[in-house]
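Per reviewer request, we include the raw input and output of the structure prediction for the construct analysed in the revised manuscript.
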Amino acid sequence: QVQLVESGGGLVQPGGSLRLSCAASGIIVNITAMGWYRQAPGKQRELVATITSGGSTNYADSVEGRFIVSRDNGKVTVYLQMNRLKPDDTAVYFCKVETNSRRVREYWGQGTQVTVSS
């Protein structure tokens, strides 16, 4: 029923910026949080940033001050503005939407590649 589609990834030089988008479609209700995770080759998936239904945000220490997560509730869309990108930011970025209709459910996108390189 629910599909998440990420977009906005690509190749960018160190110090550059990218804006990721994740649009949700299908029947989705009682969203509690939306956010972004990433996984680099050979590494575990890690939290990047989340935003709750109330607007509270949470960031990984590695991106604090550089990335901004935001949402458009009308479109059930979450964004990740990435600034001052570093090579270590290179990873596949995954969107996640969390709902709680009697029980917690998680929905994941397929991921979008972000490569930071000269």
